[in-house]
Automatic annotation (TrEMBL):
Matches recorded under PANTHER family: FAILED AXON CONNECTIONS-RELATED, METAXIN RELATED
Protein name: Metaxin glutathione S-transferase domain-containing protein
GO biological process, one term: mitochondrion organization
Domain of life per record: Eukaryota
Length: 219
């Protein structure tokens, strides 16, 4: 899926925080220094010059990349409609279609587990997602297709139980970090105001002295 390739390799923040770390955990330091950037260049080139993007050649590059996400959202909506209330797409057990979709959703939901704001694990039982919005528009749209996320959770729990436990742990750790970060400022408002105010005054003093508004006479 070109949109997924662009999300993982073309988005700078996602590449630095997530993709590069995932692909370099078992590489030597020397290989990890240059290989991810080679892979990234190839993936971006493939995403920009896929058969799908050739149909959008009349658009600018920015418009074309935005259109990739729009088309990906339409695909997710269509797949959600086709799946409906069924357990799997074709039969009473997973087929190649289920495996393909599972592989496409894995990095999106793993990224959200580690770096996002949405606890999507509740969609294994809930009919609608009502939690915090996701960290990326593509993932946010995926969460609005709860049967697709439930489909992912179902396969993961049945065939990859260790990975499922790791996902839940990532979500819990990420939520704990966000809570600690929020409490860091909310628990000591007076102290934080004094620190910020002192910093602003110091910066103003240094700037004023630099431009000559304040002069210190030497004795």
């Amino acid at each position: 899926m070109p949109a997924l390739d662009w999300f993982l390799w073309g988005e700078d923040d996602v590449f630095v925080r997530f993709t590069r770390k995932c692909y370099t955990t078992r590489l030597s330091r020397l290989s990890a220094f240059y290989l991810p950037h080679q892979w990234r260049a190839n993936k971006i080139r493939r995403a920009k010059h896929s058969q799908l993007t050739h149909c959008l050649r009349q658009m600018s590059e920015t418009e074309r990349l935005n259109e990739l996400y729009i088309l990906a959202k339409r695909c997710l909506t269509a797949l959600s409609y086709i799946l409906g209330k069924k357990t799997y797409f074709v039969d009473d057990r997973p087929t190649a279609v289920d495996a393909y979709l599972f592989g496409q959703l894995w990095p999106l939901l793993l990224y959200e587990s580690r770096h996002g704001t949405a606890d999507w694990s509740m969609l294994g039982h809930a009919a609608n997602y009502t939690g915090q919005s996701a960290s990326h528009p593509l993932i946010a749209h995926l969460l609005q297709c709860p049967n697709l996320v439930a489909h992912f959770i179902r396969i993961q729990n049945e065939y990859f139980p260790k990975a499922a436990a790791s996902f839940r742990q990532d979500i819990a750790v990420n939520a704990s970090k966000r809570l600690q970060s929020a409490n860091l400022f909310s628990n000591h408002p007076v102290r934080d105001c004094l620190l910020v105010g002192s910093g602003v005054l110091c910066l103003f003093f240094l700037y004023a002295r630099h431009i000559g508004m304040i002069r210190i006479a030497s004795t």
